[in-house]
Design goal:
57% helix, elongated, 217 residues
Length: 217
Amino acid sequence: PESAPDAAEVEQKVAAALAGYEEMADWTSNDEPLVACGSPDEPIMAAELSPLPCITVVGEHLVALTPQLKRQKVDKEQVQWLPAVLDSMVEATMQKVVQIKKLSPSGVQQLIADLQHLHEVTDALSGAGIGAASAAEDGGAAGGAAAVAGGATTRLGETLKTLRYLAETQKHSRSSRQWGEVHMEYPRTVSEEEWPTEKALRKALGLGGTEEWRRFS
């Protein structure tokens, strides 16, 4: 039988593909919001951007796993490797993300586009894993594949939600400064697990609230 992918090996491939990701010029190349053609008042959003090439490579590494998931006969062990592989990919990616030192308005939209791409690939693989387990009529394996949605996919989804919120906060903060006003941000609930990532992103976006009192559980 075909051997299951090794999570550590996948993490190494992702780390190699993302070498220097945290230092890319895309994060700060334009410190003003990008403007869409014909719409000078509307910034280009993540939906209009393509993921960076290195992120596409990471997605291709994951998509390459699809044939193993789509086999009609899949045993329990082969399905159970999927959560570990996706978790390793997300962990390697997030280690790079939290090392980004500065994010301009256009830079944060690029980061959203990147993570959205990985979220879509991860979500698709999660569905393929559940389908493979169901085809094998293995309830335990199906449950293991379904757990991916509560792990890697959810982590990426929560990070995207945080990024979109912080991007809007950065936008309002900059606008307030232009008018000589002080932008007031209301405290928001952040879990213990999510706080280190949000704290790093806040710093990169030039936002306040990086003190410990900003963390709520």
